[in-house]
Specification:
The chain has about 280 residues and is an alpha/beta fold. It has helices at about 30-50, 70-90, 100-110, 125-130, 155-175, 195-200, 205, 220-230, 235-250, 260-275, and strands at about 1-5, 10, 15-20, 55-60, 90-95, 115, 135-140, 180-185, 215, 255. Helix 1 crosses helix 2 (about 70-90), helix 2 runs parallel beside helix 3 and helix 9 runs parallel beside helix 10. Bound molecules: 9-methylguanine. The site of 9-methylguanine has 13 residues, from strand 7 and strand 9.
């Protein structure tokens, strides 16, 4: 199945890598807005050279404990970077946002995917996406980033995540978003214990039964720190292993900080699958 991301068409039967580009103040040395845009563009060039098909630009941290950013601040961080990348680089610009106003501006500036960790639950978000042709990734989350890791609980994590995504599909499609523009994500680390995350990883292929391409993001997350005992900066091997498992289970996009290594891993999976056909 092919999907059109603002003029770039990708085969969702293959696995693609999405490089992470955070444009939060802690991501770059603080030398003013212009230097931040320059640094972001330089990093975006590396991500593309390393083989990513997507760059995910985010202006608000969604880490456990993170507090929301005012709307104007998010717009100021994200929009110039989206515009610069879309103008210069051959890549799908994804924008990690839950704010309908940011969605609208980002799409106008050339974004090819909206990545919403809150599954378009903010008022006006489904309708905003219903007015565009740009695909959207809707992700499962339990709670809000600030408190989501306080005490995550499920009856059955796979069934509960599937039910949540099914209900969001109903709402989002009713607002006018075409079904063939929707990507689903189980939301590793978003209101889940380590056990929940590995149960979801183990059953990832079952989420494909919902009939949509799947995105998986496990890069450097604490589920990997838990099993390896390693700090966030030392989780490269574990992140590549998790991305490899996700690719083997048929996901269409893996979100990664270490793009070059993840692209290599995905290529090995693709070569094996090609040889088996
Ligand atoms: C922004 N962000 C951080 N982690 C993520 C994940 O696992 N999936 C998606 N879609 N976005 C994420």
């Amino acid at each position: 199945m092919r999907m059109n991301f603002a003029g770039r068409t990708l085969d969702m039967a293959a696995c693609h890598v999405m490089g992470v580009l955070n444009v939060t103040p802690d991501s770059f040395s603080d030398g003013g807005r212009f230097n931040q845009i320059d640094s972001a563009l330089a990093r975006a060039r590396e991500i593309v050279a390393d083989g990513a098909a997507f760059i995910d630009v985010g202006g608000e941290s969604t880490r456990p404990g993170a507090t929301p950013v005012p709307l104007q601040e998010e717009l100021d961080r994200v929009c110039p970077v989206v515009e610069a990348i879309a103008r210069e680089l051959d890549v799908v610009v994804s924008v990690d946002t839950s704010a309908p106003e940011v969605m609208r501006e980002a799409v106008a500036l050339g974004a090819g995917l909206i990545n919403d960790v809150r599954a378009l639950q903010r008022p006006g978000a489904p309708e905003e996406m219903g007015r565009t042709d740009v695909p959207v990734c809707i992700m499962h989350i339990q709670g809000e980033p600030e408190h989501m890791q306080d005490n995550p609980s499920y009856r059955n994590v796979l069934q509960d995540v599937s039910s949540f995504l099914t209900e969001r599909l109903r709402v989002v499609e009713a607002a006018g978003v075409r079904s063939d523009r929707i990507i689903l994500d189980p939301g590793f680390g978003f209101g889940k214990t380590v056990q929940h995350n590995f149960q979801l990883l183990s059953a990832l292929e079952q989420l494909k039964q919902l009939g949509h391409p799947i995105l998986a993001g496990m890069s450097r997350k604490s589920m990997l720190g838990h099993v390896t005992g390693r700090d966030v900066g030392e989780r490269l091997s574990a992140s590549v292993a998790a991305a490899t498992i996700a690719a083997l289970k048929g996901v269409s996009i893996v979100r990664a900080h270490d793009v070059r290594e993840t692209v290599d891993a995905v290529k090995v999976v693709a070569a094996m699958e090609e040889a088996g056909r």
